[in-house]
Amino acid sequence: MFRSGLLMMAILVSLSISAIGDPMATVLAQGATVERRVGIDPSRTVRMTLREAILLALENNRDIEVERLNVQMTGLDLEASKGIYDPTMTASLFYDRRNTPVANPLIGGANAGLLTDNLTGTASIAQRLQGQGGTLQASYSNDRGTTQNVFNTLNPQFTSTFNLSFIQPLWKNRQTDPARRQIRLARKRLDISDSQFRQRAIEIISQVQRAYWDLVFARRDREIKRESVELARTQLAHNERLVEVGTLAPADIISARVELERRNDEAAAAIDAIQRTENALKSLMLQPDSSALWQSEVVPVEMPEVETGNSLPLADALSLAMRNRPELEQFRLRGELNQIDAEYYRNQSKPQVDFVVNYGIIGLAGRVRTEENFFQTSNALLTKRVNDLSVLAGLQPLPSNDGGFSLPASLLGGSGQSLWNMLQNDFRVWRVGLNVTLPLRNRTALAQLGRAVAEGKQIEIQRQRLVQGIEIEVRNALQSLETARSRVESARNSRLNAELQHQSEQRKFDAGQSTSFFVLDRQNALSASRGRELRALTDYTKAVAELQRVMSTTLSSNNVEVK
Q1: Phi, psi of 98 (to 5 degrees)
Q2: Do residues 435 and 169 make contact, with C-beta atoms less than 8 angstroms apart?
């Protein structure tokens, strides 16, 4: 009776399986279907090493390009700040005509007015001296003037003037001034930009390393899941043969098919993980318009490996980190920026004492006026009357004269003669002295100096906090590396034992001493142990990358030089 019941149950199970259809055909069809990935051309495959991925990222990553442009702009800011020391040349040419009312008959003119015309050309050049903050300026002026003033012997009159001046700060603005402060600040900011560019390059390389190994894990994880699917499919076929020969119950076919579908589901989900990790890697190393590479499947050619050898001592790792971290270099540069500001504001609080020297030479030339003034006319009439009386008296006549004033021949000529006379250095003007400005309170400079001192203390506190954070990062990274190395060894041993368990269980099943449930369970354990080993290996390589990052040896470890 019991055996007949079992037989009837087996028949019902077989009928129910027939009623469901042939799910195995569907499974096989799914297994034969090419995996569809959005935006990926199956015919395009790019095999890539980790170094190639890093170089692509350094060349195409938008964040790297932004930092590179920041360095370029900061360099241009430095060049702009140096422009204050470029010589400045100024030139002007003016024509001036004036008709001025006059009430003094000695000024000359007609109709109570004085008409003058002047054509003046000037040129000057100024140069700031960077060493001690002095200023040197030279100017030249040439003027051609005509006037109705009949008392001017030369008309037109040409005047040439050359002047040289020098101003040297003796206290305030001698050691530093706004221009030199800006140049020094711009240099430090350029160094900070270089450090920030290096820091960003290290961060991008670390991100590429993590993304690369995540893609390696995702692809290998899919292979593990596919192998698990193949094991389930093989077990299903094996169960079907045993059912056909009557040595296995039909219910074992159902359990094998359920497990096969579950593993197919996990294998399909692994495709999504590959797509996401591959897109993450591409976003780091490709430009948005790199359509060919975006549509290609990236196949990493490197596999994670565990390095053999002794661990890096904590003291050595901390020493490397403190010596190489760009953040510490940036804090050092920020401190130097603060010192520049403090030095400048301290200097601005002092009195200003400037030493001033001026030296000038003048040249003059012109043409003798033909008109006579009333003094000359009156003198000529008086001289004629005296000479007439002298003749009647038998006396010698008075010698002729031009009013008692005669011009030297060197003053007769045009603009060229005026310039020549100036160069003779016969007529000189010079001046030397001090300009003193005493601030009575100068609260602005004192307040800015106090703020700079407080900011310097703040920078030092922040630097100490960063040092503490770096030490924690190094300790954690070293611990993660050691833990990952131990996990790799444990996971490898677990996988080897899982393989032995699976083989043993399979032999027992073939000998009729085990069930399909235990075989499938051993297969799941084997797949899980392979996944754990892969995860441990991946975590180890990522831990190595993280340790390189916290010690700032990422560039040297990957033979990368950024410029």
Answers
A1: -135, 140
A2: no
Give the span between the Cα atoms of 376 and 405, in whole angstroms.
Answer: 10
Tell me the per-residue pLDDT of 189-239, one tens digit each, with 9 for 90 and over: 999 999 999 999 999 999 999 999 999 999 999 988 888 888 888 888 888
Does pLDDT of 480 surpass 50? yes
Mean pLDDT of the chain: 85
Inter-residue contact 508 to 514 (CB < 8 Å) = yes
Distance CA 218, CA 557 (A): 25
The separation between CA 54 and the C-alpha centre of its own chain, rounded to angstroms, equals 20
The one-character DSSP state at 150 is: T
Q: Give the closest residue to 235 by CA, choosing from 17, 520, 28.
A: 520
C-alpha span between 353 and 349 (Å, rounded): 12
Q: Which option is the CATH number for 182-344+446-557: 1.10.10.10, 1.20.1600.10, 3.40.190.290, 3.40.50.2000? A: 1.20.1600.10
Structure tokens at 251: 């219910």
pLDDT of residue 422: 92
Query: Which residues on neighbouring strands pair with residue 121, listed in sequence order?
Result: 93, 142
Cβ neighbours for 438, distance < 8 A, ≥ 6 positions apart: 351
At 368, list the tokens: 């003798």
Phi, psi of 125 (to 5 degrees): -140, 135
